[in-house]
Amino acid sequence: MASAADPIPASNLPPFPHHSLTVATIDLSALAHNLVQIRRRLSPSCDILAVVKADAYGHGAVGISQALVRSGINRLGVATIDEGLALREAGVRVSVLVMGAVLPNQLPDLMAHQLTPVIHDPSIAARFAELAQSRPEPYPVHVKVDTGMGRLGLRPEEVLPMLQSPSFKGPLRAEGLMTHLADADNQNPEFTMAQLTRFRSVVGQLAAAGLSLPLLHVANSAAIFRHPSAHFSLVRPGIMLYGYSPIPVIESPPDLRPVLSLTTQVVQVRALAPGESVSYNRAFVATRSSRIAVLPIGYADGYNRSLSNRGHVLIHGCEARIVGRVCMDMTMVDVTDIPSVMPGDEAVLIGRQGSRQISAADLAAWLETIPYEILCAIGPRAPRVYR
User: Fold this and answer.
1) Which of 116, 113, 90 is nearest to 102 (CA)?
2) pLDDT of residue 5 exceeding 80
3) Are 28-242 and 260-386 equal in CATH topology?
4) Which residues touch 166 (CB under 8 Å, ≥6 apart)?
5) Long-range contacts: 88-94, Cβ < 8 Å, 24+?
6) What is the pLDDT of residue 54?
7) What is the mean pLDDT of the chain?
8) How far apart are CA 287 and CA 277, in angstroms?
C-alpha cells in the first residue's frame, strides 16, 4: 500500500477520451500532498473519512476514490445512494457512508450494496431494522444529531431513546455518531463551541447509559484546522482534499495544492473592427481593432454565464479578458495584446500557465461565490484525466 507521502499511482483509472478539446486534469500528486497536510494535524487515533460527494467536488468520484483507497483511506463519504452505487460498480469496496437523506423505499438498495446509512429520524431506523432482521449480523449505521445546523438530524434528546429502542437490540448496530458544524469557518468560535458542547452532552448521556459508539465524527475541513477539539475519532475532509482552504481569511493558511486544472484550446481567432460586437445582446462592442479568440467551453460545461465580460483566461502565459456573453458551448476572449495566438493554442481556465495562475478561488471571487460551487459545476463534457 502506498504511503501518504508517495505519489498516487494512476493505473486502472478512466482512459482519456481524445476527442474533447476541453479537459479537466486531476493531479494525483497534489491530492496525496493535501492528504499529508490533513494527517499531520490529527492524532494517531483519529481516522479520516474522505468526502467524495458531488462527484468528488467535480474531480471524478471514481478516480479520486480509487486513488484515496490506494493511499490508505478506508472510509468514504457520499451524499446519495446513487453516488455510493457508482463507487461499488467501479469496484470500490471500502466503507461508504451515505450522509444525505435516505427514505424507506431506498433502504433495500442501500443494504444490497453494503452502503452505510446515516439515520436522521427514528422512523427510518425502525423501518431499516425490519429489513435487517433476517441478517446474521447487525447492520452498521451512523446516527446524526442536529446540534445547530438546522438540517437533517435527531434532536439531542431523541438520540438515547432511539438507541435504546428494539431497532438497536439486534437488527441494527450504531457504529458512529455525527453532527454537522454550521459555522466552523467563522473567526468567532462561539457557535461552534456551543455545538461541540451539545454533541459532548449526547456522548455523555450515551456513556452514562452504558452505550459506546466506536466512531464519533464532527470536524469538516474548517474544523480540522481551526478546532482540534472537534477531531474526536474521525474527521471528514472535503474541500481541503482538493486543494482549497475552507477558511476565507486565515493567518497561516494550510499548505494545500489545487488538484484540478481546466484547459481548452483556441478554435478560431477573429478580427473585430471598432463598433463590431461579440456574442448575444452585443454585450461587448469593440472600441479598437481587436482580435478575439473563440474557446469551445460554455455554461453547459459549468463555465458560468455570469463570467461574461468578467474575469480572464491564460493564453501564452498572459491574461486574455473574457468579452461578450458566455454561451452554452463557447466563450470569447480578447487576445489583441497577445501576439501570435492561433487555433490549437492552450487556454487555461483553472490552473497554471507560465508564471501565472487562475484558481477556483479566483473564479469564485469574480462570481461572488465559493470555490466549492466552481468545482462542482464543471460538467461531464470535460473528461477527467488523472496524472
Assistant:
1) 116
2) no
3) no
4) 129
5) 88/113, 88/114, 88/115, 90/62, 90/65, 90/66, 91/66, 92/62, 92/65, 92/66, 94/69
6) 98
7) 94
8) 10
Q: What pLDDT is recorded for position 249? A: 65
For residues 38, 42, 44, 46, the Cα torsion angle rounded to the nearest 10 degrees is: -100
In the predicted structure, residue 248 carries a pLDDT above the cut 90: no
- The string of DSSP codes covering 50-78 is EE-HHHHHHT-HHHHHHHHHHTT--EEEE
Report which DSSP code applies to 15: P
- DSSP assignment string, 175-186: EEEE---SSTTS
**Which grid cell sits at 166?**
428494539
Assess contact for 24 and 260: CB atoms under 8 A. Answer: yes
The residue extents of the domains of the chain are 28-242, 260-386
Nearest residue to 93 via CA among 132, 55, 65? 65
Q: Would you say domain 260-386 falls under CATH 2.40.30.10? A: no
State the pTM of this model.
0.92
Cell 478580427 sits at which residue?
A: 271
Catalytic residue numbers read 53, 280
In angstroms, the CA 28 to CA 259 distance is: 7
State the residue for C-alpha cell 477556483.
Answer: 360
The b/e string for 357-369 (b: 16+ C-beta within 10 A; e otherwise) is ebbbbebbebbee
The residue type at 90: A
Return the HEC string of 206-275. HHHCCCCCCEEECCCHHHHHHCHHHCCCEECCCHHHHCCCCCCCCCCCCCCCCCEEEEEECCEEEEECCC
pLDDT value of residue 251: 59
List the CATH code of the domain at 28-242: 3.20.20.10
Residue type, 291: R
pLDDT digits (tens, 9 = 90+) for 133-157: 989 999 999 999 999 999 999 999 9
Judge contact between 172 and 139, C-beta under 8 A: yes
